[in-house]
Amino acid sequence: MIQSEHTGAIDILSADLESADLLGDHRKVSPPLMAPPCIWTFAKMKEFKSKLGKEKNSRLVVKRGEVVTIRVPTHPEGKRVCWEFATDDYDIGFGVYFDWTPVTSTDITVQVSDSSEDEDEDEEEEEEIEDPVPVGDVERGSRSSLRGRYGEVMPVYRRDSHRDVQAGSHDYPGEGIYLLKFDNSYSLLRNKTLYFHVYYT
């Protein structure tokens, strides 16, 4: 992305051109600013959990020390991604990021970043994933190497998802993959049961 200092116009370039040294200096070009998401809560916790408890792939356990990333590609028939989630008994960290990589599949995938397990197992899992997220969590660091590829829609912070169903939506900024981060890395003792529903409109 290049923003004109005179007109304020923005040109979005391909990833190859974006990383090229077009102006003779070594500045990294950052992605466009993201519009804020719409977020809300609703209180029908029992009904929400009961409905999702019956659906396949709508419930998972985020273990202590883990960060689970749900990768949601933009869909050619959609204009907005929507999410709803709740947990049993305890809160969980949640944030949304956008990966500007071209979409090759519309499949929603789940990736677990485990900070406390054996590193050898992590390496084996990374080899199986077709398009892994680069090493380092987006919300924790390594931002300089990821700046040209990721946009922050909503930073990770703790949500009272055990009290109310947390919901939100975001209009597509373009083609890419949403990264919905469920962060339980701050918990040393408790696993969190997560109920989630992701869809597009």
UniProtKB/TrEMBL annotation:
InterPro entries: GOLD_dom, GOLD_dom_sf, Golgi-PI4KB_interaction
Record keywords, A-Z: Acetylation, Membrane, Transmembrane
Domain GOLD: 36-200
Name the record gives this protein: Transmembrane emp24 protein transport domain containing 8
Transmembrane regions listed in the UniProt entry: none
Chain spans, region Disordered: 110-144
Pfam families from the UniProt entry: GOLD_2 (PF13897)
Species for this entry: Mustela putorius furo
Composition bias type Acidic residues, residue spans: 115-131
Lineage: Eukaryota, Metazoa, Chordata, Craniata, Vertebrata
